[in-house]
UniProtKB/TrEMBL annotation:
Key words of the record: DNA-binding
Domain Putative DNA-binding: 13-98
Lineage: Bacteria, Pseudomonadati, Pseudomonadota, Gammaproteobacteria, Lysobacterales
Name the UniProt record assigns to this protein: DNA-binding domain-containing protein
Source organism superkingdom: Bacteria
GO molecular function terms noted in the UniProt entry: DNA binding
InterPro entries to which the protein is assigned, alphabetical: DUF2063 (IPR018640), DUF2063_N_sf (IPR044922), NGO1945-like_C (IPR054098)
Gene3D superfamilies: 3.90.930.50, DUF2063
Domain NGO1945-like C-terminal per the UniProt entry, residue ranges: 148-244
């Protein structure tokens, strides 16, 4: 049975109602509704949205100040059409909006990266693990190392984990910031700063679609890095993989592809 369609008049009222809530200055309220009643809906919808975003992005909220923050939320409310009605996904929708709107006058240069950094904590807390079954006891050098789906290596131009009201860099430093975000067995989301080699190793493991063994991956990295002592490089990389396995970042290994 096909769902019943709303009568055209009701549909028009709903469209006008939504348009007015999004942008009261540009769209009149539907006919026949007192402004006193509409004001209740305007405040309810906006305050609910603003409260969720403020709790998802507390650092960004604190940096912007009242007027710029509310202007940003109003712009999002007016300009962005969400892909989902779920409240936990509003942070992702806000991030999508910032990605598409681009840099505007008055924006700090780190705005998008800071928003992403703050969004990651909620996103990872809601993530459903999707990991393959590990081969017990298989060496990380002989097998294909597996990165946990609850461990995200991230790279930023700005030191987003250090940004606060009294530390707002005007330009990106010469070196990038690398972070590892992990949801542990107690479902706590934790951030740790890592160096560039650890980031590259994790990225290499994550993008290993051909099933190379850990030894093959590390030897390739040693070649690309023009390591003076490739054997020592591989040994250090193996030790790092083992340390990451102890922290549930690397889950273990799968049987490597013999044809890779």
């Amino acid at each position: 049975m096909r769902p019943l369609e709303a009568p055209a008049r009701l549909r028009d009222q709903q469209v006008a109602f939504a348009a007015h809530l999004r942008s009261p200055d540009d769209n009149p309220a539907p006919d026949g509704i007192e402004d006193r009643r509409m004001a209740i809906y305007r405040d309810l919808f906006y305050n609910s949205l603003e409260g969720i975003l403020a709790s998802n992005f507390p650092v960004l909220r604190g940096l912007r100040g009242d007027a710029p923050w509310h202007a940003l939320v109003r712009d999002f409310y007016r300009e962005h059409y969400c892909h989902t009605p779920l409240f936990p996904e509003l942070g992702r929708e806000f991030l999508r909006y910032l990605e598409t709107r681009g840099q505007r006058d008055g924006d700090p240069p780190f705005l998008l990266e800071l928003a992403h950094y703050e969004w990651v904590e909620l996103a990872l807390s809601l993530e459903d693990p999707d990991d393959p079954p590990i081969v017990p006891g298989l060496s990380l050098l002989e097998g294909t190392p597996v990165l946990s789906s609850l461990a995200w290596p991230l790279a930023y131009r700005f030191p987003v984990h250090q940004i606060r009201p009294d530390h707002q860099p005007g330009e990106a430093p010469g070196e990038a910031t690398f972070l590892l975000v992990v949801r542990d067995r107690q479902d706590e989301v934790r951030f740790k700063q890592i160096d560039v080699l650890a980031f590259q190793l994790l990225q290499t493991v994550a993008s290993n679609e051909t099933g190379l063994s850990g030894g093959q991956l590390l030897n390739t990295m040693a070649t690309n890095a023009a390591a003076a002592d490739p054997e020592a490089f591989v040994q250090a990389g193996h030790q790092l993989l083992q340390q990451l396995q102890q922290r549930d970042v690397i889950l273990g290994a799968l049987t490597a592809n013999p044809n890779a």
